[in-house]
Amino acid sequence: MNAPDDDYDDDGLNGYDHDLDDEAAPEALVWQLLLMINPGDEESALQQFADYREALAEAGGETDEPVWLLRDAIDWKAGFYVDAEDAASFIDSLNELAARWNLRIDWGSDDPGDEDFLAGTDIPELMALAHDRLREHGYTLWTWNTGTDAHAGWIALRRDDEAMQALSTLLGIEARPGSDAF
To answer: Which residues does the UniProt record annotate as the domain DUF6630 (predicted)?
Structure first.
């Protein structure tokens, strides 16, 4: 599996090409996003890109909203998508994603899976907490507007915040830092 044809030299932002604009092929934009949410792990980005391309082919080769095809390609590997009432899955998913960089999120509880702890919180509150803990280590938790009761997002390097916002906009994804959950 290869990246889409274009120039993806490393410029310090995981290959993000700041010259990409509204005319850039959606596939090239998706590749840029995958590089950002898999920092330092091009092999995983390539596998997720292959999964995205396969889903795109099954969808007839075009999509107005690539984020939905991406959602399945990255779920529990480089992103999360959980029901608004499933705080336990949110915690498990974020723990799995953070473990890629040997990070552990301090959820403020000795047992974040405890029913009492989960009953006293919600995903936006947990997302803000995880965002703050990840920022301490140079990462940003991002969330995107699903238009449903579900919560979704990914983690990228903090230094890529501006590039992530620009890239999300080009892809038509309403994304913002996890400190301000949808």
So the answer is: 30-177
What is the phi-psi region of residue 173: left when phi exceeds 0, alpha when psi lies from -120 to 50, beta otherwise? beta
Q: How far apart are CA 82 and CA 89, in angstroms?
A: 7
Q: Which residues neighbour 162 within 8 Å (Cβ) at sequence distance 6 or greater?
A: none
- Top-ranked range on mean pLDDT: pick from 3-7, 17-21, 139-143: 139-143
Give the total residue count for the chain. Answer: 182
Q: Where are the domains of the chain?
A: 26-180
| 29-63 b/e (C-beta count within 10 Å ≥ 16 → b) | bbbbbbbbbbbebbebbbbbbebbbebbeeeeeeb
- Strands 139-144, 79-82: pairing is unpaired
- What is the predicted pLDDT for the residue at 25? 87
Give the separation between CA 131 and CA 3, rounded to whole angstroms: 30
Residue 24's pLDDT band, with cuts at 50, 70 and 90, is low
What is residue 8's predicted lDDT score, i.e. its pLDDT?
A: 38
**Chain mean position to CA 133:** 16
Q: Is the Cβ–Cβ distance between 164 and 156 less than 8 Å? A: yes
pLDDT(55) > 90: yes
